[in-house]
Every structure is written in structure tokens, then in C-alpha cells.
Amino acid sequence: MKRPVAVIGLGFMGSALARALACAGFNVCAWTRSAARRAEFSNEFHVSASAVDAVEAADVVVLCITNFDASAEFLELAGLAEALGGKTLIQLTSESPEEARRFATLAEPLGVAVLDGAIATMPSSIGNRDAVIYYSGDRAIFDREHEILAAMAGKPTYCGTDPSDASSMDMAWLSLFYSAALGLIQGIAICQAARLDPSTYLNATPSYLPEILAMSKDFERQTRLDNFTGNQANMTLHLGGAAQVLAVCAAKGLDTRLPQAAVDLIQKSIDAGFAELEFAVAAKVIRPL
Prior knowledge:
Blueprint (H helix, E strand, L loop, with lengths): L3 E5 L3 H12 L3 E5 L3 H6 L5 E2 L3 H6 L3 E4 L4 H8 L4 H5 L3 E4 L5 H11 L5 E7 L12 E6 L1 H6 L1 H7 L2 E6 L4 H29 L4 H6 L1 H21 L9 H17 L5 H18 L8 H4 L3
Parallel strand pairs: 1-2, 1-4, 2-3, 4-5, 5-6, 7-8
Antiparallel strand pairs: 6-7
Helix pairs in contact: 4-6, 12-13
Organism: Mesorhizobium neociceri
Protein name: NAD(P)-dependent oxidoreductase
Pfam families: NAD_binding_2, RedAm-like_C
């Protein structure tokens, strides 16, 4: 059996983290506020009577609860300071960049080594080799606890020393997630308006993924080099495509806010003098220097 790890929080994500750690051979001791959830998982790993008991039994504590306020309350529990002292606390509760800094400030007097994290995947993917969790804070903690981090997600990714760096990277991931989800939903509406089966469109999604991956690699190279020339499609061509989607949605009486946003951003990029450059240049319009 490997080192003891406490998991505080057994919601959808917390329970997935606990299971992944247990499957990797770690001695998991968990706790959550819900008595029903404690009973539900009592046959899978040790469930402590209190949060402090779980922390006392572990070398490393993984915190994955409701929100920042709940995390702050956790740090104020009677007896927690003594239980946490000298240990590692991996903060995986969803929080904003500013909240991540505040949590680090609150934890500092407790003498605990804090590594802030942001989970960039769904509970069903926790423990998978391609799952990503972003981390920030002391690089030495990240390196020291790498075995535990890799058990929870196969690609633990260090972002920087500022406690807020992982959360900021998570905002970038969520931007992609929600944009992709909205795009899928808009496509479903277009299919339904045209009396087409959305399953045909959705089942073809895996065929689109290589294009998305190739675009991501191109964006990385262009952004890193600050060179947005290419041979795929410039902003003028993209304007034509986005305008067609907007026109079809408008003609069919669909909500046009998503395609309108695309048209507006592309047009703004063209107006800024980027007509002959590729799509990644639009980041300069979103974040003017």
C-alpha cells in the first residue's frame, strides 16, 4: 500500500479522485459532509468520522469541495491547523484566480505546503492517462507529489509559481469547452430546422477532431512566433463562412448570437488590418496590446 492520502469532498469529482487514488494503490481516507455519501463509499475506501480525522490519518490532503467559501470554512475547522501542519494540501476546488490567491494567503499561517490545482476534465475521465489537471505554486511540491498527481490525471501540468496560474489556465480550458458545447448545440438546432437527423451530424464529430487538433497546433506555433501567415484560410475567407452560418440561422428563425459573435470578431480583425492573416490573429483583437 502506498502513502495515505485524504480526500475531502465526495461529490461527483471528489469521489472520482478518491477512486482513482485507491485504484492506484494509495491508502485513501475520505470525508464529506453528506452522511448518505459517506455511507455510499464506505465499502470502497476508509471514510473518516470527521474532516480532521481524515487529515490526521494522511500525509497528503486533496481538497475538492463546493466552492471557495467552503474551502475557507474548511481551513477554519477546530483542530485542523494541528492536523495539517507540515503536510501537503492539494487544492482542487473550483475557484477564480483571485480566490486561488486568497486561499493561499489563508493557508499560509497553517504551515501547510499548498499546491493549487484546476481540473480540466469531467469526472468520468479522472484517472485516465490523457486527463489534464493544471497546477500552480511551488514547483518543488509539484515534483515531490507527482505520483499522486499522475494517479488522479495522467497529464498533471505545471503552469507557474503564482497560486492563480492554474485557475487562469482553467479559464482558458473552460472557454474552449463552452464554445465547443455551444457550437455543437447550434449545429443541432440547424439540423432540426432543416429537418435533418442531428445524430448524423453528432456521430460524425470524431472525423472533425483531427482538424481541430491540427488547428490547435497551428495556433500554438503562430502565437509563439507571433507570425500569423499561413496557407489554410485567412480572415477574409473565414468571414464568408461565418456570414453564411449567420444568414442560415437568421433565415430559419434560430438564435443568431453565436454566429453573430463570430462574424463581429472576424470583421473586427479585418478592420484592424489582419484580413490576410489566419484565425489565431483574432487573439490580438480579443486582447488588445
